[in-house]
Every structure is written in C-alpha cells, then in structure tokens.
Amino acid sequence: MVIATGFFDGVHIGHRFVIERLVSEARERGDQSMVVTFWPHPRNVLQDDARNLRLLTSLEEKKALLKGLGVDHVEVLPFTKEFSRLTTQEYLRDVLIARFGAKAVLIGYDNRMGCDPQTPESIERIAEGEGLDVIRLGSVASPSGGITVSSTKIREAVAAGDMEKAAAMLGYEYSLLGVVVAGNRLGRTFGFPTANIQLYEPLKLLPGNGVYSVEAETLGRKFKGMCNIGVRPTVRAGGQRTIETNIFDFDEDIYGLDLKVTFHHKIRDELRFDSIDALQAQLAADRAHILAE
Predict the structure, then answer these.
(1) Which among 5, 190, 253, 261 counts the fewest CB atoms within 10 Å?
(2) What is the rounded end-to-end Cα distance, in angstroms, of the chain?
(3) Has residue 226 got a pLDDT over 80?
C-alpha cells in the first residue's frame, strides 16, 4: 500500500498535487493507494481556540473529493488525546505499517505526524528506518499571485468573501450543503422568496456576510441564484447569521430537501436599508446584475 496521511481540509490544489503523485506512484508499483486522514480536526481536541475553527469540507465531502481523484482507499482515524500521544515512529510502525500495510509513504514539505517535533527530513529518516520507501514532495503555489497554498489561507479568503481567490487555491468553487428549513417568508411577500438552509456540517466555514452570485442545486437540477449570508439588518436587528438563497425561475416547495449552494463571487456587502421598498429595489438590481454576467 502506498499511503499519504494528513487532515486534507479542502482537498485543495496543494493536496491534489500530493494525491495525484500518490495515485501515480501506486499504479507504477502495481499497488493500491490509500489516504489516512482524521476526524475531528486535531485543533478541536488539543487547543483551547477550537471554538473558532471552521472547516472547508465536511468529512463526507473530503472523502468524496479524495475518491474522485482516484484514491483506492480512504481510512478515517478518530483523533483523540490518546491518539495524539503517538510518536512519529509509533504512528508509522503501529498504524501505517501494522494496520494498513504501508510499503511507501508520501511526505510533503510541511507534513507532521506524531507528537514529537520532527522535520520532513527527520520523518524521512524514521520512515526509512522502518523499511518504508519515502516519496518527498515540495510546496505548491497558487496560480493567483504565486502564494503557497494552505487550508488556512483558503479559510481567510472564504471568510473575507473572496470566493474567486478561494476557488483558485481550492481548484474548484466553494459550496455549502444543507437542508431547507422554514424562514420568516418575508421575501415571498415582495417577490424574492428565499430557501434558508441549515448546514449538515455545523463546523463548515461560512463566507463573509454579503450577497453572492451562486449556483443552486436541488431536485437534481441546477439554477442561477443569489445568496445572502448575514443577519438581515433591514428586517431584524441583532439576529443570528442565516444562509438565504433566492433561486431564479424556481417556485417549488423544497422544505426538508437538500440544497447545495456553490459560490461564484461576491456582489456586495450586506446592507441595512431604510425600507422594504429600498431592499426590494436593491435585490432587483442584484438579480439583474447576476443575470447579465
């Protein structure tokens, strides 16, 4: 088995470089490829600031993305405090080799494994000492600006509402998946009904507050639309953040059904209007802008 290991949040273009190498190496060796990943995120278990961590992919999204890149096996290990106390050597020997039959392991430029602070060079020496072939990989730069890609930088872009920058680093457009729940139905009264979603993964990162050009997918079909993320300051002061999508040319009851919202780019910030009429006029302008793209 040829194995790559890590959390792989987002399965971004840096991760894809690793996975593509993993799959090709396994095929050249006449072996199978495996990604060994973890859930929950180590920060959720080990750090006090875990309440602030939001993820780019749910576990199911991550597994689907990895499988879509040709990985033969995706194994998910529960990340616990006990697990976190394994040393690099113990992790390689007792988990990757003894449990999963590793013959070769990929080590990225910032790969970490085990509780002992090791550099990629020292991890390589330990792995070779355990009889593993080691495949070393370098860093990957984003085509947008040449910056080194990381899940942290993508989270920063999504949180800032820069969906185009996030997509350049991810290699695909960012999306949210949830179930449609009842809202206050106010938008329906002035011609802009919205589908409110409750996320299946509560730790999924929301784009920054604002109005976005999106693709809405439900009932096996895809539609243009616009999504507002925010607190709806015109109709409710101090409210909780909501995800409301106006699906263009669509008027079906989808309460209780899945809705996937894929983000193209941000149209504007969320604003407070003096009246519902002013809000309605702005929404009409937003819709016209998106349809003209």
Answers:
(1) 253
(2) 47
(3) yes
